[in-house]
Inverse folding.
């Protein structure tokens, strides 16, 4: 028994064909095993036709009962072998489906995680969803039936040897017809590829529209735009339907050709073989054997055509997948990373002048919300002009841009209100690594003042969250997101308005418990909430993109009118909420 999924490895995303070849190399053992089984299964069918012909000539026509029983025994043995091969064949094809599909899932998921926000900025949501569903299925279906191709080639080779040995001219005529039939499918395969690509583009666009429509339905109803958006969805749906119909016609033509052309070959063999038998050039047994060979060849041709059409679909899907795998990160790792600073480090934004002091809680107040967004992005290395770490013991400065991105994410965590809550068990959402005990996790949840949310959940930690936690209110979602950020316990935690969706009483509790939980740790609070700012060690006031004043919250309230106006306006909004 083999465990799936297996380690995916490094995918080759230079082209669709190279990606499919990479998948084939990663599972060459199972593909080879499946091809051998398929070849043995189809070859038994060819040999059964030969055994039947020999039984007719030696036993029935010649009247030799011993030979008849012998060949009947051979025929029965071949039939039993075919039956015995069926479960092995099914297991091999199923394994190939799972191995290729799950390896693709792993590769795409790992790349999506590495890209982060880059993925949604570069690709529409519908494209991402389609890659994760339809395209992966197409890859799996191709590798599931890919072993039929080599099996068909083996069967054709066995039939060729038998036919040429029995009657060279007749065998040669049949063998020439097989590749001609296969080549005749090329124009249909090209049309299928073109039309499937067209349909896939429209399908991704439709999925994007559907996602936008569902996510923004409340807003659309508020502004009366649901009809316009609904009409746009219907128009795109009609285009997807039309493209699907064209793909269906092409696939129907392929299916008809897979049945018609081998059928014509079979009719031709029977007609020509009957003529040879009447002329005495073929025995009755050989005629029956040739009929069986041709039926087997017809099945082999259908298998080759099926694999070819599945390859076309898989190649279209692989092109989309390599498009995701080949995306470059907006902020790639440096070619030559610098040595990380060790020990306590300040986090300094050279653009605004904001410094988050190591071991302290620093408030960042921005009169302009766009400045708050920019400062938080630079502190977390979500912009090219990012912050820098300053080692307190030596004063050595290293830009976050010069460090590996994964190390930056481990040391600096930016928790904003647009972060998603994912579907799944509550425990896994708050502690994805599963490293925290129940008691520790309970303390973290209490620090975020989200303990009441857990207590009201029917199954406690095992309660299953819906997508984006939509069963909870905005304030409850915000407190769960805060608990998740606190549970990560990063070296530097940057919180962007962590209590903007709760009432004043809850905000006061959050401010108190947050300060206790992060005491002695490096924390930045990008907020205008006076309740949160009152619990910080120091506050920076940013205006026009630069720090214009620093000090404690109470000192700035008393000495700086701009600061007082900004935070007191926020307090007035909180009271009216």
């Amino acid at each position: 028994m083999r465990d799936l999924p297996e380690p995916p490895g490094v995918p080759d995303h230079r082209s669709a064909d190279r990606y499919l070849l990479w998948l084939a190399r990663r599972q060459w053992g199972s593909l080879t095993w499946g091809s051998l089984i398929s070849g043995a299964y189809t070859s038994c069918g060819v040999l059964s036709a030969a055994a039947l012909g020999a039984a007719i000539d030696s036993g029935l026509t010649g009247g030799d009962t011993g030979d008849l029983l012998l060949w009947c025994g051979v025929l029965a043995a071949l039939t039993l072998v075919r039956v015995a091969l069926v479960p092995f064949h099914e297991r091999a094809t199923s394994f190939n489906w799972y191995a290729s599909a799950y390896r693709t899932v792993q590769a795409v998921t790992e790349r999506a995680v590495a890209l982060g926000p880059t993925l949604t900025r570069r690709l529409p949501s519908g494209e991402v969803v389609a890659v994760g569903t339809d395209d992966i299925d197409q890859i799996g279906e191709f590798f599931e039936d890919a072993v039929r191709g080599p099996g068909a080639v083996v069967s054709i080779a066995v039939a060729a040897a038998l036919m040429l040995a029995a009657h060279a001219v007749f065998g040669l005529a049949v063998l020439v017809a097989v590749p001609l039939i296969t080549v005749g499918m090329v124009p249909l395969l090209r049309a299928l590829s073109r039309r499937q690509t067209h349909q896939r583009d429209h399908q991704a666009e439709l999925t994007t529209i559907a996602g936008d429509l569902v996510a923004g339905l409340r807003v659309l109803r508020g502004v009366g735009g649901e009809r316009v958006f609904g009409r746009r969805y219907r128009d795109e749906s009609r285009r997807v339907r039309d493209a699907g119909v064209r793909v269906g016609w092409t696939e129907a033509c392929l299916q008809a050709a897979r049945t018609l052309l081998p059928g014509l070959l079979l009719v031709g063999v029977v007609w020509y073989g009957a003529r040879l038998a009447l002329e005495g050039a073929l025995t009755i047994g050989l005629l029956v054997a040739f009929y069986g060979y041709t039926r087997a060849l017809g099945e082999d041709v259908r298998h080759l055509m099926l694999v070819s059409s599945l390859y076309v679909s898989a190649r279209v899907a692989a092109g989309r997948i390599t498009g995701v795998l080949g995306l470059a990160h907006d902020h790639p790792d440096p070619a030559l990373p610098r040595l990380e600073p060790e020990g306590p480090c300040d986090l300094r934004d050279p653009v605004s002048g904001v410094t988050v002091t190591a071991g302290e809680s620093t408030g960042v107040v921005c009169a302009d919300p766009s400045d708050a967004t920019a400062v938080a992005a630079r502190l977390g290395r979500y912009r090219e002009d990012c912050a820098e770490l300053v080692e307190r013991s030596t004063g050595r400065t290293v830009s976050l841009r010069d460090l590996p991105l994964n190390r930056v994410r481990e040391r600096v965590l930016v928790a904003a209100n647009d972060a998603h809550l994912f579907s799944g068990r509550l425990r896994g959402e708050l502690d994805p690594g599963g490293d925290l005990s129940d008691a520790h996790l309970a303390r973290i949840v209490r620090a975020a003042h989200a303990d009441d949310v857990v207590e009201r959940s029917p199954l406690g930690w095992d309660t299953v969250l819906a997508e984006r936690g939509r069963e909870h209110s905005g304030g409850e979602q915000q407190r769960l997101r805060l608990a998740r950020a606190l549970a990560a316990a990063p070296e530097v935690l940057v919180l962007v308005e962590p209590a903007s969706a709760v009432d004043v009483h809850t905000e006061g509790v959050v401010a108190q418990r947050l300060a206790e939980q992060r005491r002695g740790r490096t924390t930045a609070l990008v907020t205008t909430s006076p309740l949160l700012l009152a619990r910080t060690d120091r506050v920076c006031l940013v205006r026009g993109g630069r720090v214009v004043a620093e000090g404690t919250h109470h000192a700035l309230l008393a000495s700086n009118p701009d600061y007082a106006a900004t935070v007191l306006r926020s307090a007035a909004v909180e009271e009216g909420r």
